[in-house]
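We were asked to recover a plausible sequence for a given structure. The inputs and outputs are reproduced exactly as logged, with field labels preserved.

PROBLEM: sequence recovery
POSITIONS: 236
GIVEN STRUCTURE:
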């Protein structure tokens, strides 16, 4: 399910969402829809959309299927790449089988473990195909992996797939794109509509430009892959 909230800052909007929904912060995804800086005539605000699972409940109400980690919460563990436990074994087997059935060789291993999050690395001589244009193939595989994790009784675990460090390289590219676009908007005073992006990528654009006082951003479109518009608003 999705909900929309508004606050003076992103943090305030997220805290409001968590309080009203009765969820922990890591139980929902946040997409920034629009930001507005403080000005002489307008108050600043951040508008967000919260994505939750239909049957998601607060952490204190989770069943015995909760995915427990060997270390304390929010600690990323770069450790044994081999699967630990039945859940990880089945997850890696599933990902391996999907890619193999696509006709590509692959070696699947664990890169890190966090509370309710696991990083999976795909090594293949066809990595560029597995990534796809703008990472859409990798996003599709990641979606399948998360659906399968839910079927194994671990809806609370977020599976992150990566290959050839694509996720990191994509983040760096998007940050550069955000700043370059902001410069163009400030020079021309015209808005620029960026390419369609997934929620994580759009949020990266929003947060990157959030501290630039004379530009603002908002998401446009429907579905998962929306576009971010960067607008000039000047300093009032």
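RECOVERED SEQUENCE:
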């Amino acid at each position: 399910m999705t909900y929309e909230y508004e606050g003076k800052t992103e943090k305030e909007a997220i805290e409001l969402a968590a309080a009203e929904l009765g969820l922990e912060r890591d139980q929902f995804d946040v997409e920034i829809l629009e930001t507005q800086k403080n000005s002489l005539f307008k108050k600043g605000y951040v508008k967000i959309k919260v994505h939750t699972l239909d049957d998601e409940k607060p952490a204190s109400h989770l069943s015995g299927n909760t995915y427990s980690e060997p270390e304390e919460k929010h600690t990323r563990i770069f450790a044994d790449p081999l699967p630990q436990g039945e859940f990880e074994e089945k997850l890696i087997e599933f990902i391996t089988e999907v890619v193999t059935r696509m006709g590509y060789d692959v070696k699947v291993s664990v890169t890190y473990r966090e509370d309710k999050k696991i990083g999976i690395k795909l090594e293949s001589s066809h990595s560029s195909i597995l990534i796809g244009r703008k990472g859409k193939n990798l996003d599709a595989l990641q979606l399948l992996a998360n659906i399968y994790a839910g079927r194994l009784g671990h809806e609370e675990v977020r599976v992150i797939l990566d290959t050839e460090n694509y996720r990191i390289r994509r983040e760096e590219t998007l940050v550069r794109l955000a700043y370059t676009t902001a410069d163009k908007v400030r020079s021309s005073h015209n808005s620029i509509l960026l390419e369609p992006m997934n929620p994580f990528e759009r949020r990266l654009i929003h947060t990157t430009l959030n501290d630039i006082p004379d530009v603002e951003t908002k998401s446009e479109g429907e579905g998962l892959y929306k576009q971010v518009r960067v607008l000039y608003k000047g300093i009032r």
